[in-house]
Specification:
alpha+beta, Uridine Diphospho-n-acetylenolpyruvylglucosamine Reductase, domain 2, Uridine Diphospho-n-acetylenolpyruvylglucosamine Reductase, domain 3, Uridine Diphospho-n-acetylenolpyruvylglucosamine Reductase, domain 1, 3 domains, four-stranded mixed beta sheet, about 30% helix, globular
Length: about 325
């Protein structure tokens, strides 16, 4: 375990916000976590931080930042049709993707190149190109600070919904994920419901492989999204808003070119990026913050943006979308 005081968090969040925390604790084993838990619980303020790819720090953090560095990926159960893979929370997400490709395990390939750690994936219920991670998660294990013991959540107990889970909504502060268990398929089956992915694959391959799907997803993402190491960002800043079918029908009468997807419960999901673009924000810059020219859903730090600059920009966008479409955008990021 490594503990540093007055630690700069600039390199621990993909937005590149230059703030500090009072204490930064790197935990690299479950045993260390159990031993250190009493010290954590004595502190009134602590926050669990993975790769920082979905976090916007709004000010210095006057408490303990807990950063899991527990690593390891292994197959723990297998049959002729499927396997169960256990991945530690501190593993880079793309390490798990590479493990799946090497072992020809199907299910997560559409989630290639999403920045962050394995332990953050269930919290956010990460998703891309027609797939959500909840579709492959069997269970989640970790340390429950409120009970001072190791606990497990089944898939149903995780309370997954669109970009949400029980870890984000209710127990974010009380539960540190140490391992995630995935049930993956040995049989070749791809999700090509996302039009851009399906078209690219059909144009290039008569019989695509797992690696071909993963490489294509990476190529599409790289063409639309900035590298956070060059231009600070947290990927999608806003959620795609879900509206009723009736409300959507009225919107389409006035704006027939809106990008619309089917959602659960007979509702419709609108493309937040398209709404933002139609309000004229794509590529605009306000001070040190701006909207990425290739993808309006991504807000970027042009070098020295303060949290207030990013939040003020987000607020202007929310206001314009509300005034133009009567739709309220919700931030996808965690504000700390």
């Amino acid at each position: 375990m490594k503990i540093t005081e007055n630690h700069s968090l600039k390199n621990n969040n993909t937005f590149g916000i230059d703030v500090q925390c009072s204490t930064f604790a790197c935990i690299d084993s479950v045993e260390e976590l159990e031993d250190f838990s009493e010290n954590i619980l004595k502190n009134e303020k602590f926050y669990i931080l993975g790769g920082g790819s979905n976090t916007l720090f709004t000010k210095n953090f006057g408490g303990i930042i807990i950063h899991p560095e527990i690593t390891g990926i292994e197959i723990v159960e297998e049959s002729s049709e499927s396997v169960v893979v256990c991945a530690a929370a501190g593993e880079e997400w793309d390490n798990l993707i590479n493990f799946c490709i090497k072992n020809e395990l199907y299910g997560l390939e559409n989630l290639t190149a999403i920045p962050g750690l394995v332990g953050s994936a269930p919290v956010q219920n990460i998703g891309a190109y027609g797939v959500e991670v909840k579709d492959c998660i069997l269970k989640v294990s970790g340390f429950d600070f409120s009970k001072k013991q190791l606990s497990e959540f089944s898939n149903a107990e995780c309370g997954f919904s669109y970009r949400n889970s029980v870890f984000k909504a209710n127990t974010k502060r009380d539960f540190l994920i140490t391992h995630v268990f995935f049930r993956l398929s040995r049989k070749k089956r791809f999700n090509l419901s996302y039009n851009a992915l399906a078209k690219t694959i059909s144009d290039r391959y008569s019989e695509p492989t797992l690696k071909a799907i993963s490489d294509t997803v990476r190529e599409i993402r790289d063409s639309k999204l900035p590298d956070y190491r060059i231009l600070g960002n947290c990927g999608s800043f806003f959620k795609n808003p879900v509206v009723s079918d009736g409300f959507c029908a009225k919107l389409l009468e006035k704006h027939p070119d809106l990008v619309v997807f089917d959602a659960d419960g007979g509702n419709k999901k609108l493309s937040a990026g398209h709404l933002i673009e139609k309000c004229g924000w794509k590529g605009r810059r306000v001070g040190n913050a701006g909207v990425y020219p290739k993808q309006a859903l991504v807000l970027v730090n042009y070098g020295n943006a303060s949290p207030d600059e990013i939040l003020n920009l987000a607020g202007m966008i929310v206001s314009d979308v509300r005034n133009e479409f009567g739709v309220e955008l919700e931030m996808e990021i965690n504000r700390v």
